[in-house]
Design brief:
57% of the residues lie in helices and 0% in strands. It has one domain: Orthogonal Bundle (Cytochrome Bc1 Complex, Chain D, domain 2), CATH 1.10.760.10. The protein is mainly alpha-helical and 100 residues long. The protein is globular and about 30 Å long.
Length: 100
């Protein structure tokens, strides 16, 4: 029983950063780091035709902010920065707000 309690506390503590994602910070990061290629806000000019708008990403069926945050940790073509886990979680949280 003691081991189960320790596991539960460990899981809660490890997941706390994901629960505390900051949408406004994610928007700020997106505007400064992602807008050169992606349309990061509705009604913004899309810079590259092959870079999907964030609103489209957020509206994808089965969108999962945690999975997106994990994917953002892997560099993709032309990405000009390496986000921290917190940065990735915040950007993913921002993108999830665009699906509404």
């Amino acid at each position: 029983m003691w081991v189960f309690g320790v596991l539960v506390v460990g899981v809660v503590l490890c997941s706390a950063p994901a629960l505390a994602a900051d949408v406004q910070r994610g928007k700020d990061i997106a505007e400064h780091q992602c807008a050169a290629c992606h349309q990061v806000a509705p009604h913004q000019r899309n810079e590259l035709a092959d870079a999907p708008p964030f609103e489209l990403i957020g509206r994808k069926n089965g969108f999962d902010a945690a999975a997106l945050a994990f994917a953002l940790l892997e560099p993709h073509p032309k990405m000009n920065f390496s986000p921290s886990q917190r940065d990735a979680a915040d950007v993913a949280a921002y993108i999830s707000t665009l699906a509404r």
